[in-house]
Amino acid sequence: MKQVFIFTLLLLTFSFGLKADEGMWLLNQLNQLGLEEKGLQMEEAEIYSPGEISLANAVVNLGRASAELVSSDGLILTNHHVAFGAVQRASTGGTDYLTNGFLAKTRDEEIPAPGYVARILLEMKDVTADVLKGMDQINDPVKRMRAIERRIKEMEEAVEQEREDYDARIASMFSGKQYILFKYQRFEDVRMVFIPPRAIGNYGGDVDNWMWPRHTGDFSFLRIYMSPDGRGAKYSEDNVPFQPKRWIKIAQEPLKAGDFTFIIGFPGRTNRYSTSFYVDFYQNKYYPLLINEFQDVINMLDEIGKQSKELQIKAVGTTKWLNNSLKNYQGNLEGMQRIKLLQQKKALEEKVQEFISSDENLKRQYGDLLNRFEQEFQKSIRSYDRDFFLSYFRFLAGTIPSVANSIYGVAYERAKPAEEREPSFSEKDVQRSIQRLQYRYMSFAPEIDKALLKRMLLKFKNFPPEQRIQGLDFIFTDYKSIDDFLEHAYASTRLTDVDYARSLFSKSLEELNQMDDPFIRMARALQPEFDKIRKEKEENKALMQELSKQWIEVLMAYEKRPFYPDANGTIRFTYGNVAGYTPRDAVWYKPFTTLTGVMEKETGEWPFIVPEKLKELYAKKDYGQWIDPELKDVPVAFLNECDITGGNSGSPVFNAKGELVGIAFDGNWEALTGDWQFADGIQRAINVYIRYVLFITEKFAGANHILQEMGIK
Questions:
Q1: Taking the CB of residue 238, how many other CB atoms lie within 10 A of it?
Q2: Which residues are catalytic?
Q3: For all residues of the chain together, what is the average pLDDT?
Q4: Residue-wise over 336-349: b if at least 16 C-beta within 10 A, else e?
Q5: Which of 345, 410, 482, 709 lies at 20 to 30 Å from 52 by C-alpha?
């Protein structure tokens, strides 16, 4: 308890040294930020107040992305690229919503967004003392880590047992120095309302991704439905639109450069308190490897997609996230080298080491911290190449191999005594996975699956002899070739039937071991390898977490500034003014783009195709009320100084009064290394302007009913 108190005191009392607008702050840290002085024109309690309804309750978690409630009937806004997976899955039977978009003119025409789950924040609570109670009595770091993980799972399940539509997550902050419980209401009935055509929602495609100036109408309207009794529920025709206690008002006044703004959302992951050896590894190993592998898979899937429109739609769900990740990794790698991040981290560590050495107490406690940290880190990456391909087997080896691994992995855990199972294992999670299995099959195509698996098997075959996976030798010895195995495997397996695959989740490990299905046999061969990696990494993970915790303690003592936790998918607050920036010498980027810029970029070829109707609106200057009086044009996107990362996609952008002025959808190329270190002076969020959203919705789509629902006249 004493350590928890001291840690909290450190967070509350540091008050200088932070760069302007830096920080992905927890909602309970707002009172540290001096927001009124910076331009906020509302009470902080209206943004977040424990036990009260506030703006935070109108921000929606969509898995790995964000959204916002904009009407009393559960209407939500998010990005086009966030809704992309639902649109792709719904584009079946010759229907191409990706290209043409989708508009429901009535509630009855709204269709399911397959696989999407919305979560509304109900409660946020510091549970550090409850999680760590008695843990200091466990000396073995692995046993202590497993005990903490098991307690967290028990506490989460206790919350979820209160109601069937509750979700709970206890998130670790500062490498386990603090634990916060986030309680959500879960809704599995999410439907598509208006998705603009791809030529608007993804204008500029991967060419413009992460770049400014940007001219993408990256938005979509969805709706959350609930059961008639007000609970989150799976899709049913009897469900009714969700009735939120708080939704967000649309701003009527135009934005100007210098205006105060803020964003609330669910940023995914940052590594800002990492050491130089992490940076060295990512710069010289991790990013180059992923860039090469992802580009190879993208090229392969693009070629397969040329065979038919159906295969193109099936493949695009994978290539979309691969392309996004690829460009992000390229930007990070280029940025690390440009700003000499590795050298900066080493210089910081030298200064911190001097600080430690200047104090006997610090020296006694932390004197060899960096040396121990580096030694442990090097252990963690000894067999990285092999571990990398085994880890990515679950994602990049095809749908059927991935499902087979899931089936076998569940049976493998169930076969263990309860106390020896992975702390994260949960029958409730297994049942949810079974229920959602159909969504994994929506992107399945034999041609794609075979190509992905063949590529992965060739990687395995070329491992050095000492790293070979012996259990897979049957593929290379019992068949004439990998192609021969693939033809036999996909012809003989029944796992291509989703209902049959579901049935296997009830099988025991012994029953699965007796099966002759080639994919179950392959999963059986891989399971010991996955288990070996887990055991090797477990001790390392426990030690690394403790070392990371100590490193953060030292940084706090040295830097004497407010500290926010690294992003980890939990709800955060960030703020900053509308502002352009200078990316390099003699270049100035304005903070707004306009419809004129959309037309100037048009080439008539993807990804710069402008729909004819949009051209007509531009030619006639039929802008309605959405013209900006200063720009004398329809604004499309804008920049602000907010500190965001992946996961913030779809986050609401508010003006000083807490009104919606935009939707965050990207960061800028020059500051992609912001995941590692805040890029002071050039870090920007790229946001689609709400005026462009409304212009497209009204003038292009004729969806006046959506505007009326949001209270816009």
A1: 9
A2: 81, 218, 649
A3: 94
A4: beebebbeebbebb
A5: 709
Is the confidence at residue 123, as pLDDT, over 50? Answer: yes
Locate tokens 């699965």: which residue?
Answer: 512
Strands (E), 196-271: 220-226, 240-241, 260-265
DSSP letter for each residue of 491-505: HH-STTSHHHHHHHT
Provide mean pLDDT across the span 617-626.
98
Range of the domain at 395: 276-555
Is the omega angle on the peptide bond into residue 583 within 30 degrees of 0, that is, cis? no
**Is there a single domain that holds both residue 217 and residue 356?**
no
Residue that finishes a domain, picked among 525, 555, 585: 555
pTM greater than 0.90: yes
317 and 411 share a domain? yes
- Kindly calculate the radius of gyration of the chain based on its CA atoms and give it in whole angstroms: 26
The answer to whether residues 286 and 265 belong to one domain is: no
594's tokens: 């306009």
Does residue 161 belong to any structural domain of this protein?
no
CA distances from 661 to 215, 636, 689 (A): 16, 12, 6
Based on the structure, what is the number of domains in the chain?
Answer: 2
Query: What pLDDT digit, counting tens, does each position of 259-300 carry?
Result: 999 999 999 999 999 999 999 999 999 999 999 999 999 999
Provide the β-strand partners of residue 250: 660
CA-to-CA separations, 19 to 347, 563, 601, 666, in angstroms, rounded: 18, 11, 36, 21
Per-residue pLDDT tens digits for 238-249: 999 999 999 999
446-461 helix and 399-414 helix, angle to the nearest 10 degrees? 70
CB atoms within 10 A of CB 335: 21
| Range from 38-47, 212-221, 311-320 carrying the lowest mean pLDDT | 311-320
Please indicate, yes or no, if residue 159 is contained in any of the structural domains. no
Alpha-carbon distance of 159 to 233, in angstroms, equals: 17
In a domain, 388, yes or no: yes
Tell me, what DSSP letter sits at residue 43? Answer: -
% of residues, the chain, pLDDT over 70: 97
Sheet holding 572-577, edge to edge: 572-577, 260-265, 652-655, 660-667, 685-689, 635-640, 592-594
Q: What DSSP designation does 285 have?
A: I
Q: Which two tokens stand for residue 166?
A: 């509750």
DSSP string, 543-576: HHHHHHHHHHHHHHHHH-S---PPP-SS-EEEEE
Q: Is 632 left (phi over 0), alpha (psi -120 to 50) or beta?
A: left
